[in-house]
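Record 1 of the preview.
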Amino acid sequence: MSNGRAKWLNLLVMVAFGTMSLVVKRIPLTSSEMAMERAVIGAVTLLAVQLMRKKLISPRKLKRELPLLLLNGGILGAGWILLFEAYRYTTVSVATLAYYFAPVLIAVGCALWFGEKMNGRQIVCFVLATAGLVLMVDLRNLSGGGQSFKGALLALLSAVCYAAVVLMNKKIRTVDGMDRTLVQLAAAAAVLLPYVLLTSGVHAFSMSGSGWIYLLILGVFYTGVCYVIYFSTIGHLRGQEVALLSYADPLTAVLCSLLILGEGITAVQAVGGAMIIGFTLLNEWASARIKS
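->
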């Protein structure tokens, strides 16, 4: 695969991820059950792809990394629950922009966990992106019942989960990207199933046909197909190219929120969101220039 083709496919996947909220909002299930069903359908889709490619994971490699993969799967599932729940309390714009604080958390985590030093530019970008998060959450919402604030906080906690998954994946050496995702999706499903059974219960079989269509789109397309395309492209792209292309996700999500869902965003939140995306993007772009 050429670098140009990989870029376009990766960009299309990021744009697709940005439209996922349009599907999530049309599935009449609790956030926890939706996350579980997504993990199950996504895992089955990836397993089918691996069987067709005749590339099954080595039991020896899997056994060595299994505890960390299971932990990652549980955190991945928890992050999905938090993000889907955030959509119920605030706009897609606010939830997505709060969620995209994750790259900042990853940079800080790498410094704390792996000893990667942060230079002056990274520290400035971190401080200003954090200030943008404070503006985007817009603490004035607390006086109005705090629903939007709660949604932003849930999305931020989802970002913490995502950052934790990325950081722990750096510790996994013997299992490749596709197999790693398959096992983590299966682990997420296994962790979420007892939680769903003990709380909300399983109600997917009582959904209408349209509900099942949206659920299958979420599991097969957004989790299975998009992940397959994503992992098939990142091997042909530099890390900085992958990071920069990922910003098509929040930009698409904000446009869907404003133009399709008709959700509003205050001027303060817009400034805060622009600061999160802008200063995180600036840091990635500057890093790419230095390493190129």
